């Protein structure tokens, strides 16, 4: 007999798992095949609506938006349509670096989706790192931009734009929510 939650081997007619403490329903067919419940439900009874939302929509949409943003930025910079006359010339290079980092983050999001779909070991941690990378890149870009503006002009009108605050807040919320969500489901990611 095997535990449905942690897949630990148990003596027949056990009521509670000695490994994780889960209540065990007696099923004789599982005694012959320890993976029988896995074939029926790969999520082992855990509700996975958030997981499915992330892998089928949120991460894809975010990655596509990041690619669109990066492409647009690079097109403006190299196409000569961006107006850098009001700011120091170094902003052109900072925007290019930020666009390349954004492309890297989009690639990381695609890899994260594939790992989450396959229930690969470490996939939830990669998801957390992805959201941290998104927030950190925005913060670092802003700090560098404002440092240059302060050095050039002596002051800056607003240190935090509403867009930046929103992006950082979303990153923090996503990190915290996903840590709590995937902590309960870490036994699923063993491939």
State the gist of this model.
With 191 residues, the protein is mainly alpha-helical. It has helices spanning 29-32, 36-40, 49-79, 90-117, 123-153, 162-183.
Structure in words:
- The mean pLDDT is 83.
- With 191 residues, this protein is mainly α.
- It contains 6 helices and no strands.
- It is elongated.
- Helix 3 (49-79) runs antiparallel to helix 4, helix 4 packs antiparallel against helix 5 (123-153) and helix 5 (123-153) packs antiparallel against helix 6 (162-183).
Shape descriptor reads elongated
Secondary-structure element order, N to C: HHHHHH
- DSSP strand tally: 0
Q: Give the % helix.
A: 55-70%
- Poorly predicted parts: none
Alpha carbon gap, first and last residue = 22 Å
The number of helical segments is: 6
The rounded Rg comes to: 24 Å
Tell me about the biggest sheet? none
Strand portion: under 5%
Structural class: mainly alpha
The average pLDDT score comes to 83
